[in-house]
Amino acid sequence: QVQLVESGGGLVQAGGSLRLSCAASGLAFSVFSMGWFRQAPGKEREFVAAIIGSGFSTYYADSVKGRFTISRDNAKNTVYLQMNSLKPEDTAVYYCAADRVVSNLNTGSPDPRPDFWGQGTQVTVSS
Question: Exposed, middle or buried by CB within 10 Å (0-12, 13-18, 19+), for 15?
């Protein structure tokens, strides 16, 4: 059974930083591309960042480029999202996702459907 468990969310002031983690189990982690999505109240779920299995290529939404960094540790079956210079508009539930094909993560679709989802972690940025 595949599980993706996010952690690290919380409340932070604008300009602050948070690091999200997603621990994966039940899958051949290094084979999967991993991604982060977010969903704010009343909005569609949107792509944030993705990283391929080797970690050599990363992808970002324009809204987070230069502020967020995705990374992974295949020895720990964990993917991270370092979020710096946070803004109130970054407030959302952040979801970890896994897919064998990175293009299924790095998609502009309003209805992304990766192989697996985590349960989400709340990030709230106060102004």
Answer: exposed
The answer to whether 10 and 71 are in contact (CB under 8 A) is no
Any residues with CB less than 8 A from the CB of 41 and at least 6 apart, and which?
Answer: none
CB 49 within 8 A of CB 60: yes
46-105: pLDDT as tens digits: 999 999 999 999 999 999 999 999 999 999 999 999 999 999 999 999 999 999 998 889
Structure tokens at 3: 């599980």
Nearest residue to 98 via CA among 61, 72, 125, 124: 72
